[in-house]
Amino acid sequence: MRALLLADTKVELYSTDLPPENSIQLIGTDYSTKNCECRIKDVACLGCGNVVGYHVTLPCQSCIRSCNNGHFWMFHSSAVFPVDRLDQTGIQIMLWGSLLNSKEHNEMSDDDLMMEECLQMNSHI
């Protein structure tokens, strides 16, 4: 998913909840930024060795409580290219809309859906 770095909206990132297999490695020690207390670790490409992004290894309470999409793997858009994720069939591209298939979700407004997703994410942690 394409995203912008909250601390600097000029920085474009790609985020995911699952890291790519057999292509990256966590490197270095955990660190925090000045914006929050999340613990972060750099991610390097196994092919070239360059740092291509970072992983939130331990989200802080403030970030956990705020609405988020559960994506803790961030990649610099200048260092990687996005790949569409396939659905359970392995044929079709996964779309957000296809994840909501119950009658209740179909009848909810966009604002209600956003609030429910936020509450679900916060209650699972």
UniProtKB/TrEMBL annotation:
One Gene Ontology cellular component annotation held by this UniProt entry: cytosol
Top-level lineage group: Eukaryota
Family of the protein in this entry: Belongs to the FAM72 family.
InterPro entries: YPEH2ZP
Protein name listed in UniProt: Protein fam72a
